[in-house]
Amino acid sequence: MSTKPRQRTYDHRLVRLVQETGDTTIATHIGDPRSTVAGWLKRAPQEVTTAPGGDASAAELRVRVAKLEKRVARLSAVLRVFFALFCLL
User: I need a surface site. Which of 3, 22, 43, 60 has the fewest CB within 10 A?
Assistant: First the structure.
């Protein structure tokens, strides 16, 4: 029984950055093989599907995180009250 060696996968953002800039040293400095990076330049950029909100700006994401942190804090406080009430019963 022979097993095939696994093919490495790379972050699509790194591949896109190398393709857009044409600068292979970006990836080779972090240890990616030169032959692999050269192959990225030869092929066309692939279409990437992202989750909703993936195209949001950094400021929008910070606002969203702040709202979610506030919500988590509120829900944690409610949970603490419930635990305190049930422990007294």
Answer: 3
Q: Which contacts (CB < 8 Å, 24+ apart) does range 42-51 have?
A: 45/15, 45/16, 45/19, 46/12, 46/15, 48/12, 48/16
Q: How many Cα atoms sit within 13 Å of 65 on the Cβ side?
A: 7
pLDDT tens, 47-73?
Answer: 877 777 666 777 888 888 999 999 999
pLDDT tens digit string along 1-49? 678 888 888 888 899 889 988 999 989 999 999 999 999 999 888 787 7
∠ CA 27-25-33, rounded to 5°:
50
Which residue segment(s) compose the domain that 16 sits in?
10-46
